[in-house]
Amino acid sequence: MKEKHELQVTDVFSKARIITYLWIVLCPPYGLFRVWSPSSEFRRPEKWVWTMIVICTLFTFVKLIIAG
Q: What is the pTM of this model?
C-alpha cells in the first residue's frame, strides 16, 4: 500500500508533468494541449480539473480587462 502511494506522489512530480504545469501558467492553450495530448500522463479527472482551472482563470482575466 505504501509503495503504491509513493508511486502516485512521484508520478505527480515527474519531469513531464512539471513542464506541463509551467506551460499551464505561462501559456494556458499550449498547457492544455500538453494535458490533453494522447501521450499525456494525466488521468481523465485531472484533465478535466486542469481544463476548468484554465477556463476560470482566463474568464477572470477577461472580466478584469473588460470591467477595469
A: 0.76
